[in-house]
């Protein structure tokens, strides 16, 4: 997690740009935290079986029991939620009523907002995915804060909202189905109507990348898109034998995800009501459900495997701490059941992920697209495929990193963002 620093060291919204914005402080009640500790202590972990303790040490059949035993102990005995709150609150936090449709029905959206005093600062909105949150951006924002301690030198306005139904933002109204196009409307409304920030850039991964494509495709004030996830189908007749060894390995990773790693998504797409009700009953169940995804989707090279379980298996304590913090945020905000709505669009109900989930929103000239390619992404996609649906002006292949790139490689993301913005500013 990021190191806490005074939030007042950086800028706050200029009054004329943010008349409806209210400062926000994260503060979960002590009673709720005590209740969580009681639930953890009373929650049993079943015994060993073949599926949760495979002799080969793998997670081919799901989360390993011994990891969950240790993570439960750490959450009960060592994890400090107040420290996480301090890290979030070290940045300027706000809430604002934001329209969810043209009728001006509103929900409250919470966001981190770091506003530069530089008149040429470029607005950048960062969009997390599932099971992500604003916590993903704390290492990146900390890095940028340290790099630009004088907010008048900061070349960006940095905005990171909790998406509707996630974290400290309100859920969508329950009167109808809401999806990614509705989220894009909310994000654009936050940036343009609420904050007055036009010609903004959007950065995202996972479902954040799909929202980014909707924004780039449909909204005039979104001038550019920088993503680190972009699953699209190959151009018609594409010869896969022409791909590089790195791309072929990436396609194998995508096959693994679709065939062996996407059962959770089928459940979220087809039975989100049941899943949300079940996972909302117990923090340990939520830890198992979300923890598996972080372990499978992060690059092992991004987190040092510095601890040993009783079996001798190695694991990363830093990653475990990040996982517990992420799960705790979902648990303390009570939002796991309202976070599954994106899967009804991203996954067909026939057991396969539709390749058009991003392709249906191409981002072409005059808009500009940047792509940061990470080898341990769940669906690494070849450049030639992405170019079919993008005015691709920036491409960077990284050697280390996975699905949670902002968390795994904040320095790499920061450098990519700075270089992408320079391209946008070239005459």
From TrEMBL:
- Residue ranges of domain Epoxide hydrolase N-terminal in the record: 21-137
Q: Matching Gene3D superfamilies, A to Z?
A: alpha/beta hydrolase (3.40.50.1820)
Alphabetical list of SUPFAM superfamilies matching this protein: alpha/beta-Hydrolases
The entry assigns this protein to a family as follows: Belongs to the peptidase S33 family.
Name the domain of life this protein comes from.
Eukaryota
Which Pfam family, any one, appears in the UniProt record?
Answer: EHN
Extract the PANTHER family matched here: EPOXIDE HYDROLASE 1-RELATED (PTHR21661), HYDROLASE, PUTATIVE (AFU_ORTHOLOGUE AFUA_3G08960)-RELATED (PTHR21661:SF39)
> What Gene Ontology terms for biological process does this UniProt record contain?
epoxide metabolic process
Q: Which InterPro entries match?
A: AB_hydrolase_fold, Epox_hydrolase-like, Epoxide_hydro_N, Epoxide_hydrolase
Q: What is this protein called?
A: Hydrolase
Q: Which organism is it from?
A: Triangularia verruculosa
Which residues are catalytic? 206, 343, 403
